[in-house]
Amino acid sequence: MPKAAAYAVAHELAGRPDRARGYFEQARAQVEAGLGEVEAADATARRAIELAENLGDHVAAPFPRLDAVLRVFVRTGNFDAALSELDTYLSEPGMWSIDGLLPDPRLDPLREDPRFQALVAEHRRR
Question: For residue range 45-98, what is the model confidence (pLDDT) as tens digits?
């Protein structure tokens, strides 16, 4: 079960249906990506990002973006979206830096892409 689904249920039980919906969307996108439903997974991941942004919670909003990169866009081969959303994530305050993300094997499909290498160079700590 995707962790996002557990968060969704917790928010639902706490009476926060708007937050629950965003996490349900994240979980759906992960399942769709795993089933090879590329277009549906990408669209659902974008919807989850949009829902988080619309809630106006600047602390929680970055998580669906990074989740979409690592669990959906890279997995579905949508490298343009993955790189764009990763750049946006790294350009704003967030929990992870590029240095912290680099060991993650889910980024392996991007490593040889010159756009990823430029993104790493741009966001790396100096």
Answer: 999 898 888 887 666 778 889 999 999 999 999 999 999 999 999 998 888 999
* Tally of domains in the chain: 1
Cα–Cα–Cα angle for 119, 47, 14, nearest 5°?
110
- What phi and psi, each to the nearest 5 degrees, are found at residue 125? -65, 140
3-class DSSP state of 78: coil
pLDDT at 55: 80
Cα 68 from Cα 74, distance rounded (Å): 8
Structure tokens at 56: 């106006």
Determine contact, residues 65/46, Cβ cutoff 8 Å: no
DSSP state of 106: G
Q: CA-to-CA distance for 88 and 92, rounded, in angstroms? A: 7
pTM of the model: 0.84
Select from 44, 116, 104 the least CA-distant residue to 70. 104
Q: Which tokens belong to 24?
A: 């349900």
Between CA 79 and CA 113 the distance in angstroms is: 9
The range of the structural domain enclosing residue 48 comes to: 3-123
